[in-house]
Design a protein that fits this description.
CATH class of the domain at 6-150: Alpha Beta
Catalytic activity: 2-C-methyl-D-erythritol 4-phosphate + NADP(+) = 1-deoxy-D-xylulose 5-phosphate + NADPH + H(+)
Number of helices: 16
Enzyme class: oxidoreductase
Structural class: alpha/beta
Bound molecules: nicotinamide-adenine-dinucleotide, magnesium ion
Binding site for 1-deoxy-D-xylulose 5-phosphate: 127, 153-154, 187, 210, 223, 228-229, 232
Domain 1-deoxy-D-xylulose 5-phosphate reductoisomerase N-terminal: 8-134
Organism: Pseudoalteromonas amylolytica
Strand content: 5-15%
Length: 398
């Protein structure tokens, strides 16, 4: 069957998700073509990607990086642009069908919202944008008829375990379709069994070494603190139009089950697979069809342990903080997200310790004046205020 080739924009192309997306697209080049690539500052990798895939546009975060890239690409026809506004424009371009949102952090918000407003198929990996703008984001998805497909492996799993009607519109109410609970699984990260007294000594190298997943630095640290699960908790609330009470976090160290949906009749449906993001990416690209992701199925003969526990909030205070923020509302989740970005960055620069990440997040939330957020402008103002408080807190600690 011949079909039109889908034009894809990859925001965050040089990152872990970006590269996995390019891998899946390359395996299915009869169906997908790369229209544009956008990234932060990695000119060298971007040069390679552009030479190989010859996108129509390449967009870097800053002017300087764009200049260098333009020089490197003088021999090919890729047009080089820079800045968030240009990313937003390209993501909304008429010729574009699908946008992979895989910039890390709040920087992903504006281009992702732009894709939503243009009614694109949006593959959402950038959970931070939803954590910041939840209500506004989901309202815009509905208003502009965008198709939103969760790529975060847990949310992709939950999506796969939901009835079709709820996939199309979760606002119809999970309970109407017999869903009684969303079971959000998490590995517990590298410090699941580490002596609590030694957590303060955790190094950057130890924190970014996730036992099961290979990911960018920020999300790896978030997985070690389980702030990642906290952000995912908030993400699930918005994606599946439910309340904090409907979501339960389950620790499953092997990361084979990627999350589950529990039904009133006692059934629990789980989605399983290798911890490889190409599976959810392929699912999102091809939905509702299935394509090759280059991922081997699980081999049950070799699986040994398969265990589950409840999270210990004294080990993961950031998880508790994020769940509390989720209950409190959107201003609180925006604040926690912003503070956490600054705290993780400071930890990665070795300016503060591992346990200080929580200290910064908790202090910023406590000191913040929470506003009602009804526009991108108001969200960005709340975000900026929290970042300023977080910087202050970091300088005091270092
Ligand atoms: P990464 O650090 O590997 O890549 C981040 C990408 O964003 C890079 O291409 C970088 O150049 C780009 N970027 C950073 N700042 C930018 C800016 N200001 N403008 C434009 N581009 C910018 O991160 P990742 O692991 O690929 O994660 C990306 C997103 O996907 C995050 O939001 C993360 O939470 C989410 N996610 C990742 C995974 C995973 O397995 N890696 C799983 C689930 C969700
Ligand atoms: Mg995840």
């Amino acid at each position: 069957m011949s079909q039109r080739v889908e034009q894809v924009v990859i925001l965050g192309a040089t990152g872990s998700i970006g590269l996995s997306t390019i891998d899946v697209i390359t395996r299915n080049s009869e169906r997908y073509s790369i229209y544009a690539l956008a990234a932060g500052r990695n000119v060298e990798l971007m040069t390679q990607l552009c030479v190989t895939h010859q996108p129509k546009f390449a967009i870097m975060d800053c002017d300087q990086a764009a200049k260098k890239l333009r020089e490197n690409l003088a021999h090919i026809s890729t047009e080089v642009l820079h800045g968030s506004e240009q990313m937003a424009q390209i993501a909304a371009h008429n010729d574009v069908d699908t946008v992979m949102s895989a910039i890390v952090g709040a920087a992903g918000l504006i281009p992702t919202l732009s894709a939503v407003e243009a009614g694109k198929k949006v593959l959402l990996a950038n959970k931070e944008s939803l954590v910041m703008s939840g209500q506004l984001f989901m309202d815009k998805v509905a208003q502009h008829g965008a198709t939103l497909l969760p790529i975060d492996s847990e949310h992709n799993a939950i999506y796969q375990c939901l009835p079709h009607t709820l996939q199309q519109d979760a606002k119809q109410g999970l309970s109407q379709f017999g869903v009684s609970k969303i079971l959000l699984t998490g590995s517990g990260g590298p410090f699941l069994t580490r002596d609590l007294k030694t957590l303060k000594d955790v190094t950057v190298e130890q924190a970014v070494a996730h036992p099961n997943w290979s990911m960018g630095q920020k999300i790896s640290v978030d997985s070690a603190t389980m702030m990642n699960k906290g952000l995912e908790f908030i993400e699930a609330k918005w994606l599946f139009a439910c309340q904090a009470e409907d979501i339960e976090v389950v620790i499953h160290p092997q990361s084979m089950i990627h999350s589950m949906v529990q039904y009133t009749d006692g059934s629990i449906i789980a989605q399983m697979g290798q911890p490889d993001m190409r599976t959810p990416i392929a699912y999102g690209l091809a939905y509702p069809e299935r394509i090759d992701a280059g991922v081997k199925p699980l081999d049950f003969a070799t699986l040994t342990d398969f265990t589950f526990t409840k999270p210990d909030f004294s080990r993961y205070p950031n998880l508790a903080l994020a769940i509390d923020a989720c209950r409190s509302g959107q201003a609180a989740t925006t604040v926690v997200n912003a503070a956490n970005e600054i705290a993780v960055e400071a930890f990665l620069r070795r300016q503060i310790g591992f346990c200080d990440i929580y200290r910064v997040n908790a202090e910023v939330l406590e000191k913040s004046t929470l506003h009602s957020l009804n526009s991108v402008h108001e969200i960005m103002a709340q975000d900026a205020q929290a970042r300023a408080l977080a910087h202050e807190c970091v300088s005091r600690i270092r």
